[in-house]
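Hi! If you just cloned this repository, the fastest way to understand the data is to look at a raw example. We've pasted two of them here, unedited. The first protein comes first, obviously.
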Amino acid sequence: MHPRTRVRLGVSAAIAAAGAYAASRPTLMEWPSRVRPGFIAALSLASGVTAYFAAGSVGLRSGGLPTMEQRARRVVALSFAGATAVGVFQAAKGEAQSRLEGGGRAIEAGFASPPALETVSGGPGSLVDFATVGREGARFLGSSVPSAVVEQVTGTPLAMPGIRVFVGYDSAGTPEERVALALAELRRTGAYDRSTLLIGAPAGSGYANPTPVDILEILLHGDTAAVAVGYGLLPSFLSLDRVELAARTQSLLIEGIAADLAGRAHRPRVLLYGESLGARVQQAAIPEGSRDLDRLGVSAALWVGTPGGPESVAFHAATAGESITIDRPDQIPDVIPDPRPRVWFLEHDGDPVVRFEPTVAYRRPPWLAARPRGRNVPEGMMWTPGITWAQVMVDTLFATHITPGNFDSRGHDYRADLGGVVPAAYDLSVDLGTAERLEKALRELEVERARRVGEA
C-alpha cells in the first residue's frame, strides 16, 4: 500500500470515529432503538469517505495526478449515479403522494355523516359540498362542542351553536374560488355578527387543529366563528413546495374578511391561529408583520411551533415590538404587560421543527450555546458541524408522538399547552377552577375524536 494511502486511511478512520462519537450524543427527541445504530454507521462512513477523498483520490498513480480518462470515468459514473438516485426518488415521491392524497380525501366512518347544524359547513343550507372537505375537514366540522361540555366547564349552557366554516382543497378549483366560497359561507352563517372570528391556517394535509376552536366555543358559550381553507392534501413535509400557494390563499382570505368587515357597525374580534406549517403560511400572508395586523384589524394572533429558518427569524423581528415568545404556560407573566402583546409565539425550547434550520450545519445555534439550556434540550447534546444538523433533521421525524388524551408538552406536541396559552393570547379571563375543568374537557373531547377516527 502506498504511504500516502495509509495516511489517508488513518485520517479517515480517525474522523469516522469522531463522527460516530458525535452522532451518539443525546438529541432533542428519543429515537426508536434501531434508528441510532444505523445513523451512527451512516454518518461515520460518510465522515470517513469524505475525509479520505478530501486528502486525495484512491485512483492516484504513485502519488501522481489522475489521468484525463480516469477523470472522465468518474464524471460519467457520478452523473449516472446522481441521475439514477433522482429518478428513483421522484418515482417514490410520486407514488407516496398519490397514496397520501387518496388518504386525505377519504372521510372516516366516524365522521361520514354531514353536520346537522346550519352553522357548520356541509350542514343544512351549506354552500360547501360535504363530500369535498376531505378527511381533515370532516374532523374539524364534526367536532362542534356539545352544550353539556360547555355547561360542565363554565356552569352555563351553550348560548348558541358555534360557527365552523371549512373549504377543502377539492371544494373548488383555485385559491380564489375556495376563498370566495369561504366568504360566502361566513356571510350565510352570520359569522360577522358573532363576538369573535378565528381565522385558522391549516397544515399541508388540511389539518386544522380543532382544540383552539373548542376553547373559544366553551369559554364564549358558542358566540364564535372559525374559518379555514385548505390548499392541499399532503403532510406538511411534502407540502413545502405549496407554501407560496398556501400563503396566497391565506392572504386572499384575510383580506376578503377585512373588506367584508369594513364599514360595519358591529365588528367581531378577529383572531389569527396557525400551527406548524400553518403558522409559517399565515405569517407569509402578512409579511409586514405588525403593520399588516393594524391594516387588517387583527386583535390578536397565536402561532404555534413555527418551523425554523430565516423566514421565522425575519417575522419575529417584524413583530418584535408587540410580541411574546414562550415555551409553556408557566412562562405566561402573572401580570401581562401594558400594552398587551398582540402576537404570541408558542415554541418549545426542544422542538426540533422550530430548531431545524440550515445554519445549524455550520454555526453553533444559540439554543445549544445558552446556559442554562432550555427545557428538554439535553445537557449532553453537543454541536458538531454537519452532524448536529443531521441529528436535528432526524429528530423532526419523531417530534410528535400522539396518544389521545395523554397530553405531553414536548417536541412538536403542543396539546398540553393550548388550554393555558389560548385564553392568555386571546385575552379571555379564566379562573383556576374553570382552567382545570377546561383541561379535563379538552382531553375528553380528543379521546372522543380519536374513538370516531378509529370507527370501522
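Ok, and the second one:
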Amino acid sequence: MESTRQKRVAKLIQKELGDIFLKESKTLFEGKMITVTQVRMSSDLSLARVYLSIFPGVTKDDFNRLINDQKKKIRYELSRRIHNQLRAMPELAFFLDDSLDYIEHIEKLLK
C-alpha cells in the first residue's frame, strides 16, 4: 500500500520525466517517442521504478542501451527541476513497460 507522500512524489517524477522525454527525445533518444506509463516509489523515497513505453518498439537490449547511455543526463535534468520539492533525489531504475504488447497478444489469442 502506497502512502500519500509516495503517490505525490511518483506523480511529480512522472510529470517531469514526461516533459524531459518530450523535449529531449530528438537529441537523447534518436527521435523515439518515450512515454512514462508509471512510476513506483520505494517506501523511503530513495528509489523510483520508472516504467517506459517506447514507440517505435524496441528490444530489451536496445532499450537498456538507449536508456542507460542517457541515465546520468536524465537524472541530472530531473534533479535540476525538482530540487526544491525533494530533500534527496531518488535513484532511477528504468523498466520497459510491455503491458501494451501483452494486451495485443491476448487480443490475438481471443480472435
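That's it. A detail worth noticing about the second one: The chain has one domain: 4-110.
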